[in-house]
Amino acid sequence: MKRQLFLAEYIQHPATVGAVMPSSKYLAKKVIDDIDFNQAEYIVEYGPGTGIFTEKILAKRKENTIVLLVELSKEFYQTLKEKYEGEENLYIVNGSAENIDWYLRKFNIPKVDYVVSGLPFTTLPKVTSSEILNKTKSILKDEGTFITFQYTLFRKKLFQSAFEHIEVKRELRNVPPAFVLSCSNPRSS
């Protein structure tokens, strides 16, 4: 079911979906490995799709940790709403990550500990990507981290324009293999 939905969404919206299959459990694990779930109060996920990262985040978070999902696809949004109906401290928005500042105000979320992203920055317009990254940088706590995965490092310089420190890991057990980028800025003094 997930694969069929993913393929259908990719065919209809290749620039915003960016993959023909959901991410593997190996990639999901590698993406959330750097999250300190004991300390995280607020976690945002951009482009959760069918929820492969969401499942792992919800399973590991503390009970009072707030999770906000921002999904552009109406089909994926509806799937997530049905899948997580009744889940406490979880908000799901059908919209664009470009409006993250507005969504945080709507749900009274001050600053975010982690932003996990499944957005295909390689296929998004550069202006849109820059807008999302700049807003992401502004909503993160000083010690906050932006974690994304990409199939190439084609747009690494774009991430470097917003974040001073980027750690890159590779996950080969995904179709296609992917890079995981953990992006942060040094703490303010």
UniProtKB/TrEMBL annotation:
Protein name, per record = Phospholipid N-methyltransferase
Q: Name the Pfam families for this protein.
A: RrnaAD (PF00398)
Source organism per entry reads Evansella vedderi
List keywords of the entry alphabetically: Methyltransferase, RNA-binding, S-adenosyl-L-methionine, Transferase
InterPro entries linked? KsgA/Erm (IPR001737), SAM-dependent_MTases_sf (IPR029063)
